[in-house]
Amino acid sequence: MTGGARAWVVSLAATVASAYALDATATAAGVAVVASGVLGDLGPRWALAVLAGSYAVWAWGLRSNLRANQALLTATGTSTNVLSKAAHDLARRHRTGPRAARVAAAAGYTATEVAKEVPYYAGAFGAAALTDPVTATGAMLFLAGANLGAAGYEYGLARLTRAFLRRRRYASFDTDWDPAAYLNGYYRTVEPDEVATIAFLVDALRGAERDRPVLFFGVGPTLHHVFAAAETASELHLGDYLPGNLAQIRRWLDRDPRAHDWRPFVRYTLRCEGDAEPTDEEVTAREELTRKKITDLVEVDAARPRPLPSRYATVVSAYCADSATADRATWARFMRHIGGLVEPGGLFVTAALRRCRGYTVAGRSFPSADVDEHDLRAVLRPDFAPPAIEVRQVPQQAAHGYGGIVLCHARRRTDPAAD
Ligand SMILES: C[S@@+](CC[C@H](N)C(=O)[O-])C[C@H]1O[C@@H](n2cnc3c(N)ncnc32)[C@H](O)[C@@H]1O
User: What CATH number does domain 177-418 carry, 3.40.50.150, 3.40.640.10, 3.40.190.170, 1.10.287.3240?
Assistant: First the structure.
């Protein structure tokens, strides 16, 4: 079974189990409130007030669960509500940006939970209308009890989902990613993986077509790879999934004093290009050139088959698809979508953490697809000429969760059969 099919089967099973469990909990709580008689002396007005209050508690429980469900969807592609998953996946396919998918997932979930209320209303007020012992007040108290039971259930499910995600060690881009913590944790100095990556990138970009726009896909809050393309590109287009990441780049473009300092990376890039001792002026000049060439900051989602309307002569996507999911099938799909943005004959430069299951940012572990050079070769084979691949061991990065990286550049085939 593919990873995608498995996610649907798991979501469907979780939905069925969750529906029964919610039903049992809510009914038991409703019956308990009525049978205990604790609110038996309330008049209809107070019963109505209690019912309204119980909805507020239910909304609070549901809110916790919607957040946990979103984290689950982002990290694993599964959900405890299959309609929520369907809405989420559909939104990600057709709309740009994580917000649309988040809203769709929440709407799908909420619609199902509200629909589940209908039988309770029909049962409670039907009984009140048709039988003498059940009064309208009794029906309202039953519903209030059921709401409180449902609230407890939603909250409990949220805790369970979070505990599951913690056990699986996955943090979520939608809810847990902290761009500033990422920059502080990885980009204070040029660490060994970036020493290798930037040198590889500079070399690979010597084969890029000059004076054409270059796309950086999944750039995060970073610019350290972008400086290498500033001279070759006519324009630099930077895409990432999270608006918060793009906001960090915007700060740097706007010369905001809070912006990250990329000068050590610019200096190292210039060294890789052959300037043995770049001066401060040369570093500043490359920063300025890069600022001038960045003409587009755009939200992208690798889950979309065509993440952007145009294709590019050069696409750079480093530590994006592999660092966005723990599921290999999803990684392969993301790679096909990103690779699809390279025009025929164009250059694709990519990098991945090697055989890594998770990398840490501010003490939280984000998913990684556990891929290696063989996986990369296989995923590129249908659309790209045989790639140039280099594997680098970076044991110094072990504290971050990985000990190797795979660096790759490949040219997209021009023959229409392969396209
Ligand atoms: C580990 S960061 C790498 C950022 C940058 N390329 C670097 O080398 O530091 C992974 C990036 O993938 C992005 N990402 C996660 N899911 C994505 C998706 N579905 N589509 C595009 N980018 C995604 C995240 O927002 C994050 O910026």
Answer: 3.40.50.150
